[in-house]
Amino acid sequence: MRRRTPVTRLLLPVTLSLFPVTSFADVSVSDVWKSWKDDLAVMGAGAVTVGAERREGDSLIIEDMVVSLSDPDINLKATLDTLRFSQNADGTVSVTLPDTMPVVIIPTLGAQGDQVTVEISFGDMAMTVSGDPSVLTYDIASDRTALTITEALDRGDPVPVGGTIFVNALTGSYTNSTSLPQIISYEFGFSSLDLLFEFAEDDAQFNITSQITDFSQKTDAVLPAGFAYEVSADALTAGLEGQSTYSYGPSQTLITYVEDGQPNSAIITGDGGSTFASVDEERLALASTFENLNVEIRSMLLPAPATVSLGDYKLSFDTPLARSATPVPFSAALGFSDLQIDDLFWNMIDPAGNFENTPINFNLSLSGTMRLLFDLLDPDQVDSMMRADVPAEVHSLAIEGLELSGAGAEITGSGAFDLDYNRPGPIPDMPSAQGTAIVEAKGINALLEKLAAMGMLPQDQIMGARMMLGMFANVIGPDELRSTLEINENGHVIINGQRIQ
Known about the structure:
Blueprint: H1 6-11, H2 29-41, E1 48-56, E2 59-70, E3 74-87, E4 93-96, E5 100-107, E6 115-121, E7 126-132, E8 135-154, E9 157-158, E10 161-177, E11 182-201, E12 204-223, H3 233-237, E13 241-248, E14 251-259, E15 262-270, E16 272-279, E17 283-299, E18 306-320, E19 328-341, H4 343-349, E20 360-372, H5 382-387, E21 392-406, E22 409-424, E23 431-442, H6 444-453, H7 459-472, E24 474-477, E25 480-487, E26 493-495, E27 498-499
Antiparallel strand pairs: 1-2, 2-3, 3-4, 3-5, 4-7, 5-6, 6-8, 7-8, 8-9, 8-10, 10-11, 11-12, 12-13, 12-14, 13-16, 14-15, 15-17, 16-17, 17-18, 18-19, 19-20, 20-21, 21-22, 22-23, 23-25, 24-25, 25-26, 26-27
């Protein structure tokens, strides 16, 4: 979960996707406004002020509402001149936001006079609240919502910067309960997000044009009493938990930079990706991936356009956060495939052409069990954890997959080991281990020869490396090696069938 500022909190219903919900009971304008005030109250005394509340028929109108926030990084103030809650005949309430909402942002550590003002335009947004006073559901739809930089000041002087973000065909649904702990869930999406940004200074000009398509997000969370919309150790130990998933489709970005009349540009495209995150008092999990990233660079310093591309990228982990009496599972993975460097760039690295310019791949997947000796979320245990020899005990470790390939060489491997902390191992102060790992390598000797030819490795080091390979690896084919490491139940270390300890 991300930290929510007051503006985010105000706009949370605005940034959600529309999913029709059946109303099981009537809700009044007073119910909805009370829910807003309760939610805004967590920002602290004086953070929200209201100029006036008045009735107009079946509507409740809020005037001159100001939300202020201060934290170590920024001071922020958002102003809504009018906010209207209108009772509908079907027992629902329509919420009408002002056409625009100015937001003033002042950096806490900036110089006197530093300030940025942005304006949020809600467009034709329709927001309807249904449910009952204990559980309110907001349905939202908007053709276009925009956020525009209207002013930027540096020590009081105007800065030549401009930017706008357009969110197109936004729809969403947000459910908010008044129970303790509070339960919220929301889904939202938009067909595209367009970003325009420009900055000019002296003889230089910088521009970004970007678009992300087919975005969707779903989040569910349980908020403990007193939660101040900030993910922290205290909030997690108090009962904060949640999970969120978002995905996006094809994207493209154009970056241009012109200085002294010399143009430079980069075009970045991708096929999309997704991210899942989950957190509670005991565990933290994350899984993220994207596909087919391509970067094309054009510059007066290059004789032709040059590209760098990546087939896919992945990062994931699932780890415990709390101290445990018994081992619990963990996992981690990191990898990418088909990293292709343009020949133009490759020739700068290897002008003699010693190495094959083949795609580079890397993948590493681990899993196992571990026992944390400290609660990672307890600030009182941080000092003890930092002073400890080991903050955790790894009781089993599996290398589910290892791959590294490129420049004509390839290394693969896998293995699994169990560790026993009740028995001393061959290394002092380390547990005993039992298991097997297999590593295979192709093209290593050829790679060493090329490094020597380039002068990157001296001949004596090449000879030493080959002697080590001869001692710990078996030849299984032309420039193909395999090494098998085994630690048996007696603690003996065996490499390729030969005991070395």
